[in-house]
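The instructor's notes for this session suggest beginning with a concrete chain rather than abstract definitions. Hand out the sequence below and ask the class to guess, before any prediction is shown, which regions might be ordered.
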Amino acid sequence: MKQAILAAFGLIALALPAKAQSADPSGTWLTQSGDTRVRIARCGTVYCGTIVTSTYQKDTNNSDPALRERPIVGVRMIWDAKPEGDGLSGQLYNPQDGRTYTGKLKVMTPTTLQLSGCVLGGLICRSQTWTKVN
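After discussion, reveal the predicted structure:
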């Protein structure tokens, strides 16, 4: 009888919807434009991404004039990315325009990552696909 009850609970647990798990985005990714590589890794309980190589030398488009001469390599481009739905949600810095956006990351396949940066509370968004390089 005890085994029958345990089996019934097991079947019920299998029938319940599972919480969506986002795929792990850890690794080095090549941006859609092909000019920058970003390493994404866990930073405590969240994910962050740091520029590891780029054809650009300095953060010349930064909205803060004091940061425009800093080397672009080493700049944190993604931070506070937390699981949300079937992806991650956090902050994305775009060195091409020097602005920070609320964004989403979603591993589409083992070698592709889709990023979407939004303004105006998600009213206007732009997306791009990155390719994993390791």
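Then share the key points. The first strand starts at residue 27 and ends at 30. Residues 21 and 86 are 6 Å apart (CA to CA).
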